[in-house]
Amino acid sequence: MQYQQWRLSPLLALLAAFLLFFYLRGSSKQQLSQTKCSLLPHNHYWLTSKRIVTPNGLISGAVEVNGGIIRSIVEAENWSGTSKTGHVIDYGEAVIMPGLIDVHAHLDDPGRVAWEGFPSGTQAAAAGGLTTLIDMPLNSCPSTVSPETLKLKIDAAEKNIYVDVGFWGGLVPDNAFNASALEALLNAGVLGLKSFMCPSGINDFPMTNISHIKEGLSVLAKYRRPLLVHAEMEQDVESNSRSEDNNDDPRSYATYLKTRPPSMEEAAVRELLTVSKDTRTGGPAEGAHLHIVHLSDADATSQLIKEAKSYGDSITVETCPHYLAFSAEEIQDGDTRFKCAPPIRSSSNKGKLWDALLEGHIDMLSSDHSPTEPELKLLNDGNFLRAWGGISSLQFVLPVTWSYGRKYGVTFEQMALWWSERPARLAGQNLKGSIAIGNHADIVVWNPDVEFDVTEDHPVYIKNPSISAYMGRKLSGKVLATFVGGNLVFEEGKHAPNACGTTILAK
Fold first, then answer.
1. Cis peptide bond N-terminal to 342, omega within 30
2. Is the CB of residue 172 less than 8 Å from the CB of residue 209?
3. What is the Cα–Cα distance from 366 to 369, expressed in whole angstroms?
4. Whole-angstrom Cα distance, residue 103 to residue 420?
5. pLDDT tens across 303-359, in order?
6. In Å, how far are 158, 383, 398, 455, 472 from 504, measured between CA atoms?
7. Cα 428 to the chain's mean position, in Å?
8. I want to staple 108 with a disulfide (CB 3.0 to 4.6 A). Which of 115, 283, 370, 483 is the partner?
């Protein structure tokens, strides 16, 4: 017996040595992978703060992250007694909030990367506290209207995204009456469809009418995915006011406002509400959902949409920070950085938009980040009728919302509702949008009390920062750290070495 024990001991020691070698080898590989994807060398850690935004309200405590998942949430009074392993990062009184989800971003990749691209756009997103982007199907070339064009998007995103990215597909006249074509696009993984009720400005993305939209909703009902609509309708009575041949000064913002009056949004919303009733329980499009993007006119539409919701229509609405921050009265002649569609309207309208958002009639916020090159924005020419329409904003939406919202008493919980929880629901991302056990560890840490100037000297990651309407503004709310799937992808002006975001495809 003693002899057998002596013979087994070296064998066991040798086996243990081999196991230890492979364990350490695997651990070093895992740590190397984490280091490439994350500024943290830790897979298991705790984030502590006196202000953590949870679905149950604001708490003081700690969030445990392990393997990219939120494993536990502990309030401060229970923290000292918690049995804990893993690294602890104390953020003091900074706000720990679910990462922002932007359901309306134009990243223009592939085909127009000089306007923006996946690397620059997602770096800007990470620096701004956004952890998930849903990319619009147009402004890239070609537009995402088929499984083949979606694959081009996915291929362009691979190893080039610092945050998670999903994709909307396009509903256009060429596929609207072809159920098989729409189903193929949805089966390929788009999270829903997008259409325009007016010319989009992109040749391969023509406008749809209400018949196209009705057909699209009937297909989407089977997949329980949303249809996003740019709700402006051209009207013949306004054709003269939109002509470049009239005597109005094209460098005047008032001239541009005449070309897209509030009645365009009102007419489109009224038309949409004739089919939104089909999404009600028992309706022919039950399971589909209608989402109105970038609402700019409060007077014409908020009451209509409020009534539709009260009838049970499955409908939501977004607006954008630029409609809540700027007003027509302050836009100078020739400053085409502020041109977008629908347009930024009056100061009184801005106040009513805030009221509609705070009262819940507007459901969420999005960036509508729609960049281009400086030459197309016509900064030197200043012709509002010819300049590209779009606000470059991706990196700044969190501090802009906070800076302009404090006047209205906006809370951290409302910020999370508008930018995380409801956008996650729209995009069908049930494991994102809140700091809850079992969810993805998509988290932003930010200091609401720090002011900073948006200048060329401030690290700005969008492709053409000079055309952003936010350049030169003083904002409050500095992003300190952004975690995507547990990886620390941004901290104090530095990004993770590798772009390890994932593409999100519907199943």
1. yes
2. no
3. 8
4. 10
5. 899 999 999 999 999 999 999 999 999 999 999 999 999 999 999 999 999 999 999
6. 11, 39, 23, 33, 35
7. 13
8. 115
